[in-house]
């Protein structure tokens, strides 16, 4: 089998680039830091990140973590977790902890995970998509007046309705107190709830992709559920966990 050979310095440059991306995320505003800026950034941000990492999960209080949020996971506001404020010099003391979205023009004040069925959004009881609702607190519908705020009819793989779930943002101490894994300390930006490779494989995504959806309009992509998760975990696209089709209506 042929393998593409990069000479050592080229492959090191690629590794350096990915390390840069994992650490800096979007903090460079799309313009690569100079080596000096990068060193300064690392000196300032990494110790703070090791100290103040926040863990993000989605679940029913007291239950399992149905979904662990990673850097690419979308918020209700349609921006990714990594686009929200995730680094703190001092973690605010109020709970629930709200991570606002600093993207210009976005009214999101708190990162909030919204379950999807593979790549598809789940329509509200009012029949409109999440994106038809305001990202501001209350999530009122922009398309109708009968809606009192986005409410997903989706039932999670854990058997509980979506509405019983919450997006939980917690410190390492808080997560340890709940007896949940916290992984090892990493310098990467916006790791959210990912604490190891098992965060991606542990059945949460598989459950999510395989569980039933009363609001679903198009079943054709269900078997290829990898499309929504391929980016982070190609291995799950033919998941052996997909045995839950009995739930299908
Ligand atoms: Zn946003
Ligand atoms: Zn948001
Ligand atoms: Zn509506
Ligand atoms: Zn609605
Ligand atoms: Zn659940």
From TrEMBL:
Amino acid composition bias (Polar residues), ranges on this chain: 222-239
Family: Belongs to the FAM221 family.
Compositional bias (Basic and acidic residues): 171-183
Entries under InterPro entries matching the protein: Fam221a/b
Name of the protein this chain belongs to: Protein FAM221A
Region described as Disordered: 171-191, 211-249
